[in-house]
Amino acid sequence: MMYHRHRLSNGIRLIHRPTASPVAHCGLIINAGSRDEKPEEQGLAHFIEHVIFKGTRKRKSFHILSHMENVGGEINAYTSKEETCIYGSFMHPYYERWFDIVADISFHSSFPDKELIKEKEIIIDEINAYKDSPAEQILDDFDEIIFDGHPLGRNILGTPKHLKTFDRQKIKTFIEKNHVAHELVICSIGRIDFPKLIRLAERYFGDFPTGTRQQNRQPPTHYLPRQKMVHQQNHQAHCITGNQAYDLSHERKTALSLLNNILGGPGLTSRLNMSVREKHGFCYHIESMYQPYSDSGIVSVYFGTDPGYVDKTISLISKELSRLRNHKLGSLQLQRARNQLCGQVNIAHESNLNEMLFIGKRILHFDNPETLAEINQHIGSVTAPELLEVANEIFDPIKMSFLTYKPS
Fold first, then answer.
1. Can you name the CATH fold of 4-205?
2. What residues contact 372, with CB distance under 8 A and at least 6 apart?
3. Most buried of 161, 217, 312, 358, CB within 10 angstroms?
4. What are 259-277's pLDDT values in tens digits?
5. Strand boundaries in 152-236, DSSP class E
């Protein structure tokens, strides 16, 4: 797997993997997300992701949206707690078309007042729709508990109150502070000569002013486990439990990823799925999740169930966590777990789009790509004693927080 790398004269990084496929994928990843907002700016990074599509100095909203669709391509964007990404998929002859439109909306958006007003209402509707889904809302509410008082605990969408205060000046100030050259990565997988890709990147992004972000991110501190119950008018009870966890660069990140996969990952044979759903039939959906950030992380177990099964389900989860803390995996169990996670990672990389976004984020945070062979090697080097130590550190009962949505 060959990756080509280049740094533009202004500091923007470029990574590319050539492929024979007629379909290309390209993205611009910016090291700025909701955690980079001030308290009064909550939701601003996500709002910017929406309104950059609403007009530039030379294009109206329709012309932006149709620019790639007219040639059968797609353009999309997302905002996370640490990144903003604009990306697209298209037939490989249209690389320059992609660079043209992404550079235009990234650097020359005009933020028309009418569009800002309209988009605020759309995002408020998005917030309300989110609140109608307790299985999604509980994840954000749990972040507030785990990262209490820290920007990582804030909802990415923001609040209607904050949204209504955003104007063109606030948008431009945030962009000037956070969308700086050394925090930008262009990632690509497609059929194009790398020297040509460099020329396109220099032509459309080379004039972007150089610079580094002035404000430094502060890691979360002073975590205190909490238990909270919220009464809601739902049919089901929803519950989540978890703890702060390892960051992206932690030496035991891979071990925790493997442990999470064993406990409640996407496989139907995860311990939680086999115990809670298959054996006892207490719930339709149960899963564990591990999300690392640049300087912290969160691990959690979520389930939704009939109110009468909440205590029994929590008891089963506690039993499985105790097994992980007290019983070392046998060699056959460990090898099966490694094989399962390696397979999931390799299957995910079969999607060139997924791989493109993965390598872009790797460059953003570590400034070096990671090949599948290296990932597989890291997974294969995890030992049973290491998993036992991680389980006792992360799933220590006195460190676990709980949040429950109980039907009124």
1. Cytochrome Bc1 Complex; Chain A, domain 1 (3.30.830)
2. 1, 345, 346, 349
3. 358
4. 999 999 999 999 999 999 9
5. 184-190, 227-232
